[in-house]
Structures are given as C-alpha cells and as structure tokens.
What does this fold into?
Amino acid sequence: MSAVFERSGRVWTFGDEVSIEYISPLRYMFNPDGRGQNCLKYLDPVFAAAQKQGDLIVAGTQFGQGPGHDHAILAIREAGIEGVVAASFAPQFFRHAIVHGLLVAECPGVLDLVGAGEQLTMDFATGRGRNQSRGTELRARVPEGPAAQIIEAGGLMPFLRAQVAAQPG
It folds into this structure.
C-alpha cells in the first residue's frame, strides 16, 4: 500500500454509540458550507473550531450508528479529519466510509490505549498504530482487498473512473 494510508495527528475522543445525527446535525446535513464547521458540535462544542487538518478521531463502540446516509462521512472529511479509529463501527457507517475514501480502523478497547489530545500515528493499511504520547502500540482491523483499493483511490467514484480509464479501447 502507499503513504495514502499513513497518518499522524492529534486525537479527539468520543465515547460509545455516537450517532450520525451528532456527527452531522440534521440542521447542517445538506449544507456543505456548514457540515464540517458543525461536525460533532453537540458532543464537543469546541471540536469544530479547535480541530486542525490532520487530526484523528478515536471513539468507542458503534461509532456512526443510526440511519445510513453519507452526510456524517462528508462532515468528518469537510472538518479536515484524516481518519477514525473506533472500538467498532455501525455497519452502514463503515460501508459509507469506504465509499467516500475515509480512513477507518476497528480497535476494540482503543479508548484505553489513546486519550484526548495525545498524538497517534496510524497506518491504516496494516492496522498498526503507535500512541506517540505514551509510547504504546495498538493493532486494529482495517479494510482489505477491494475496499482498501477504493479508499486508496479516494472513494468509489474515483476508483470506478480509474477502472474505466484503464480499460482498453
């Protein structure tokens, strides 16, 4: 895999069962100018203003639960978040993350290994991570095969465009 999958950033932590409505509040769901600026604002009012491009989200179980739609993924990407490591993901959120090229990794117990404000380096291709602040290692499950290829391409549409362009004649 390529460097597309390697990320290092400051960590923002969120607990269990973070709903997509908290990630992308309904009020901003269809407003591309407001989605990223209001991402997770009801769980952490300073998050959207204080997070910086390249930061990472670390969360508990069932991150992204709720009715499946893409807006939560778009809000995270528009906020500048580079990837999400969670104890577990809601299945529809995990699928939408792949479709939109968002780096994701599942690591049970991750909130015990990484805390808010700490520096995490994560290889989303291998699932190996290092909490730079504590000097500890973590292992996570990451998308493989075609799902990893879709993420590496930047999402499903860029992946399909590249596949069509590669076809002879």
The chain has one domain: 3-166. The chain has a mean pLDDT of 92. The CA atoms of residues 20 and 64 lie 5 Å apart.
